[in-house]
Amino acid sequence: MPDFNLDDLRAELEVYAEPEKKRERSAMDERVIAGFEEIQRFVSSHGHVPRHGEDKDIFERLYAVRLERLRMRQEFHNLLSPLDHQGLLSESAESSVGDGEPDLDELRAELEGATGSTDITELRHVRKTVDKRAAEEIANRTACENFEEFRPTFERVKRELKDSVRRALPIQKLDELSLKEIHDNQFFILHGQIAYIAEVGKDFKTQYDRRDSRLRVIYDNGTESDLLMRSFQRALHRDEAARLITNPDLGPLFAQEPAEDDLASGTIYVLRSKSEQPEIAAHREVLHKIGVTGGKVEARIANAKLDPTFLMADVEVIATYGLYNVNRVKLENIIHRVFGSAKLDLEIRDRFGNPIKPQEWFLVPLFVINEAVERIKDGTITGYVYDPMTARLVKLEP
Q1: DSSP 8-state class, residue 334
Q2: What's this model's pTM, rounded to 2 decimal places?
Q3: What 3-state class would DSSP assign to 255?
Q4: Residue 231 pLDDT more than 70?
């Protein structure tokens, strides 16, 4: 009887093995995963599993109940085990029960005023009305089916935060976050995620004769929630790291008193490259470098063909605009925000062979640049952005 090498036999059989089919996740699965990830973030931040107890934060107590329910059902184990790098589903993990069972009457009182739906991401109490209220407070999230429509908006906001076009103000340091500041097209940071108020429903009166309305909130992790404005307001105040993201208003560009970054006088210049590189020459008529200098433009471009900033080629001056008491940083941030969607994405080599990505080159027609400069001068530019599809400045939604 011949000897078989089991390793060789296994390798040959794997060729004929049916490939594993990837399982499509349902909306319910996505919601369960999102709820479990919130628990994981809590554990990472606090160093222990969520627990019950009178001295615990309401969200910790909600997470404790949610984790218990996840542990009880095998189908959730099958779904979440590949993601459970902290071992939270194991009964041997640190107990989330704490000092006895939670006081449901007290917990119900703390959740008064909230509303919502059902399932493991929320608490269920004895009375049906209380079930609805509890769910609203933790803002049960679902997968946002049309998130790709919102993705560019989130990317723009992140870029504007990085460029200091927007600021993130701590909620806890504000005197009061009024409902007026929670409106459509407003951004916040809640539990470490950017939250976008996509829709605000009609106002209505609560049973206490207070104004409220329902929101559609989109988060930058691809989920969304449908909750009341007052519930969202409470969540912001309870999150110590919550932030209000300001609108892209940089303040006065032209100041009466010069600041540290101000130029006594300056010039916005628009250049066109004389490079013969095919990818540059093909777009020469609409490819422009927009910059600011406090000296003479001619001196700035004297050695252009040796400078990767100028695409390693000579340039011609297409237009110049004189400015006074202009803040260089604010002006450059404005230019990058307005024309960010048309920024040239090109890597070239400097004279030493090092790869460089030139900045401040944009695929924008000259007439649009002229309009942008006029709006910079009159202060209205903060309300506009360049649309490459229509080749014009379009007004941002309020």
Answers
A1: H
A2: 0.39
A3: coil
A4: yes
